[in-house]
Amino acid sequence: MKRTVCLIPGDGIGPEVTGAARRVIDAAGAELEWLELPAGAGAIETHGDILPEPTIAAIELHRLALKGPLTTPIGKGFKSINVALRKRFNLYAAVRPVRSLAGVKTRYEGVELVVVRENTEGLYSGIEHEVVPGVVESLKIATRVGCERIARFAFRYAKERGRARVTVFHKANIMKMSDGLFLECARKVHEEIGAGIEYQELIVDNGCMQLVRDPTRFDILLMENLYGDLISDLCAGLVGGLGVVPGANIGDDCAIFEAVHGSAPDIAGKNVANPLAVLVSRVMMLNHIGENAAGQRIKAAYDAVLTAGDPATLTPDLGGRGTTTAFTDAILARL
Ligand code: NAI
After folding, report:
1. Please, are residues 52 and 39 in contact by the beta-carbon 8 Å criterion?
2. What is the DSSP string of 19-33?
3. Residue 122 region, left (φ>0) first, then alpha (ψ -120 to 50), else beta?
4. Quick check: 298 pLDDT over 80?
5. End-to-end Cα separation, the chain, in angstroms
6. Cα-flanking dihedrals φ and ψ of residue 195, to 5°?
7. Do domains 1-92+252-335 and 107-238 have the same CATH topology?
8. Which whole-number Å values give the CA distances from 90 to 31, 75, 192, in the listed order?
9. Is the Cβ–Cβ distance between 287 and 276 less than 8 Å?
10. 199 membership: H or E segment, kind and range
C-alpha cells in the first residue's frame, strides 16, 4: 500500500523548491501518495486561515508530512505556524544533519555533525506580555519531562548511528535554573543509556567560537530551542549555506520534514532557489519510513551533480548560474 504524505508547499520559495523535490522523488520510484495541503500566508487568502483545520486533520490522520517554509511576520501579526505545528503534534526533536558535500567548496572539509534541538519549550513557548507600559516579559520554559525526552532522543540517535560524542551547548552559568535543568537531565540520561558515548558540555558562546574554528571536532550537538535555532543556521554556513541543510521535526508518532531555511522572500519567484535542502529533507523522510533504496538513488544523483560542478546547473548560492529547474533537471538526468 502506498504511504500517504501530507505536502505543504509553503510560502515564498516554498512552492518552487517543494515542487522540484517532488519531481525528483516521484522519478526515484518511491511508493508515495501526495496530499497537498494549504498553510501559511497564502492560506489566508485561499482559506481565511493560516493553518486551516483540514490541514491539521490530515496530518493528524497520516502522521507524516513534508513542509515548505512558512513566513512569520516580524514583531507583529500572527504567531509562527511552524512553532504551532511542532507543539500541536508534539514534534519535540528537531534533527539537522550538517555535512560537507562533495563539490561544494567551503572553508571546511569533513564536517559531519548533527544538531539535535529541543523543539517545543524554551523561549519559543511564545508566552509574552507587557508587565507595565515599556516593560515586556518573555518566559523561558524548561520542564524535566521535556529536557529528559530530548536528551534520550539524542543519545538513542547517537547509539543507533554509531556516533561517538554528544556535546551539550548551554548557558547554565547565567540561566542556572532552566539551562541547569537541561544539563542535569542530559547528565542523567548519559549515565542511564550513554555507555560508550562521550559526553561534553560547552557554554554556548564558546561553542560558537569552537564551531567556526574547527567544526570537524563536533559530532552530535544537543541543545534547547533558541540555541538550536541559531546554531543550525551557523552550521549551515559552515557547509555551503541554507540551501543545503535538511531537517526533520520528530515526535513519538508523527514526523514533519522540512529544510532549515525560511521562505527567502528576497529570491522568491525567481527560479534561483536551491532545492537541495528540501530534497535532502525528503531523503531523510524516505529513510524514516524505510524507503531507503529510493533515498540512496536520490543521494547518488545529487552527489554526482555536485561533484560534476557544472556552473550552468548549480544555483547561485553554490557559485553557479543555474536555475532551480536546471539543477532539478540535472539531478533527474542522473537518477
Ligand atoms: P531565510 O532562510 O528565508 O533566508 C535567509 C537567506 O538565505 C536569504 O538571503 C535567502 O535568499 C537565503 N536562502 C534561504 N533558502 C535558500 C535556498 N533554498 N536557496 C538559496 N538561498 C536560500 O531566512 P529569513 O530571511 O530570516 O526568513 C524569511 C521568512 O522565513 C521569515 O518569515 C521567517 O520567519 C521564515 N522562516 C521559516 C522557517 C520555516 O518555515 N521552517 C525557518 C526560518 C525562517
Report:
1. yes
2. HHHHHHHHHTT--EE
3. left
4. yes
5. 24
6. -55, 130
7. yes
8. 26, 25, 24
9. no
10. strand 198-203
On whether the CB atoms of residues 235 and 259 are closer than 8 A, the answer is: no
Q: For domain 1-92+252-335, give the CATH number.
A: 3.40.718.10
The atom of ligand 1 lying closest to the CA of 81 is: 40
Domain limits, the chain: 1-92+252-335, 107-238
Least confident of 70-74, 225-229, 281-285: 70-74
The active-site residue, picked from 11, 179, 219, 229, is 229
Can you tell me the distance from the alpha carbon of 110 to that of 215, in angstroms, rounded to the nearest whole number? 9
**CB distance 81 to ligand 1 below 6 Å:** no
Ligand 1 centre from 163 Cα, in Å? Answer: 30
**What kind of architecture, by CATH, is found in domain 107-238?**
3-Layer(aba) Sandwich (3.40)
For a pocket test of ligand 1, which of 242, 271, 317 has the largest count of ligand atoms closer than 8 A to its C-beta? Answer: 242
Residue tagged active-site, from 171, 179, 219, 227: 171
Question: Is 205 one of the annotated active-site residues of the chain?
Answer: yes
Q: Tell me: the pLDDT tens digits for 116-154?
A: 999 999 998 888 999 999 999 999 999 999 999 999 999
- pTM over 0.85? The answer is yes
- Report the distance separating Cα 315 and Cα 262, nearest Å: 17
**Which of the residues 11, 67, 92, 124 is marked catalytic?**
124
Query: At residue 37, does pLDDT exceed 90?
Result: yes
CA 80 to ligand 1: nearest atom: 34
Burial class (CB in 10 A: 0-12, 13-18, 19+), 54: exposed
149-207 per-position pLDDT tens digit: 999 999 999 999 999 999 999 999 999 999 999 999 999 999 999 999 999 999 999 99
